[in-house]
Amino acid sequence: MPSPAQSNRDTIHLEDAEVLTHDAYAEHQYIIKLKAPECAQRAQPGSFVHLQCDPMLPMRRPLSIMRANAAQGTIEILYKRLGPGLEQLAHKGPGAKLSMLGPIGKGFEPHVERPRTLLIGGGVGIPPMVFLAETLRTRTDARWRPLVLMGSEIPFPFRAKPSTIMVPGIPDGTIACMPMLDEWGIPSRLASLRDFPGCFIGYVTDLAIAWLGTLDADARNEVEVFSCGPTPMMKAVAAVARRFNVPCQVSLEEYMACAVGGCAGCAVRVNTASGPAMKRVCVDGPVFDAGTVLGD
């Protein structure tokens, strides 16, 4: 029997992805759309790609998938321009070919007995939440009711607008949303310390606490939390999940060299039933139970 990590590696393909569109947003944020049929066919929420940003740079960059369209053979990636690799990537226009490994990793696993999914994304941790929300929208195995909360201390990579979807338990005045999610019928709300119009003023975890605090015990028993973002934010999300006694899955972000489990450069400590163990974020994750990697 192959191990879970070995099964994950079976999904990884090497292909030359073609840049279709490449749009710039405030504060050096970009959304790149790639023609990558093999990856698009197999991608799952939480999986990522290892992208060669330029032929002159041997080290690839791990980037989360924000959307995947199997029928069209395309994927979309949101990234922030940091470091020489992503600086080179930012200059790639339509028609450029980029060597890519993907999809990589174990994704999120929503449980049908907990259809009230609370998706919490921060900064460049927003893409997996969008992917998961879009996937839940099409699933028919439960009456999924995702709520997406996003936090950022720089302008969001989209033009926020007042939501048309009311969400009981959300503080008054917190009405800004991601338009694409609103159009899908999925409620979303934004949080920031920057006092952006319509946003919750505070951390995204404070917004999560405000919403969770309005639920009764039966409603909380239907909640499962999913998160991706900076490590301090995810530690705070894990603490919120413990406080309200709800399960939580997190997608870790780590530097990595090979991304296929060979170098072990992305290993993290995980608490297992048999004791602490080192697990590789690339193939054993990037999604883990929050209590095993971010617990006390």
In short:
The chain has 296 residues and is an alpha/beta fold.
Describe the model:
It is a single chain. With 296 residues, the protein is an alpha/beta fold. It folds into two domains: 4-104, Translation factors (Elongation Factor Tu (Ef-tu), domain 3); 116-251, Rossmann fold, CATH 3.40.50. 23% of the residues lie in helices and 32% in strands. The protein contains nine helices and 18 strands. The chain has helices spanning 4-9, 37-42, 83-89, 126-138, 179-183, 204-212, 217-220, 231-244, 290-293; strands spanning 13-25, 29-35, 48-51, 61-64, 67-69, 74-80, 97-104, 116-122, 147-151, 161-162, 176-177, 188-192, 200-201, 223-228, 248-251, 267-272, 275-280, 287-289. Strands 4-3-7-1-2-6-5 form a seven-stranded antiparallel beta sheet. Strands 13-12-9-8-14-15-18 form a seven-stranded mixed beta sheet, sandwiched between helices. Helix 4 links the parallel strand 8 and strand 9. The two termini are 34 Å apart.
Provide key terms for this protein.
Elongation Factor Tu (Ef-tu), domain 3; Rossmann fold; globular; 32% strand; disordered N terminus; seven-stranded antiparallel beta sheet; 296 residues; 9 helices; single chain; 2 domains; 18 strands; seven-stranded mixed beta sheet; alpha/beta
Unreliable stretches = 1-7
Any idea of the CATH class of the largest domain?
Alpha Beta
- Helix-residue proportion: 10-25%
Q: What number of domains?
A: 2
Q: Name the strands of the widest sheet in spatial order.
A: 4-3-7-1-2-6-5
By CATH, the superfamily of the largest domain comes out as Nucleotide-binding domain of ferredoxin-NADP reductase (FNR) module
Could you tell me the CATH topology label of the largest domain. Rossmann fold
- CA radius of gyration is 18 Å
- Name the CATH architecture of the largest domain: 3-Layer(aba) Sandwich
Using the alpha-carbon principal axes, give the shape: globular
Alpha-carbon distance between the two ends: 34 Å
- Give the beta-strand count: 18
Largest sheet: 7 strands, antiparallel
Task: Spell out the helices and strands N to C.
Answer: HEEHEEEEHEEHEEEHEEHHEHEEEEH
Task: Quickly give the structural class.
Answer: alpha/beta
Number of helices: 9
Mean model confidence by pLDDT: 93
Percentage of β-strand residues: 25-35%
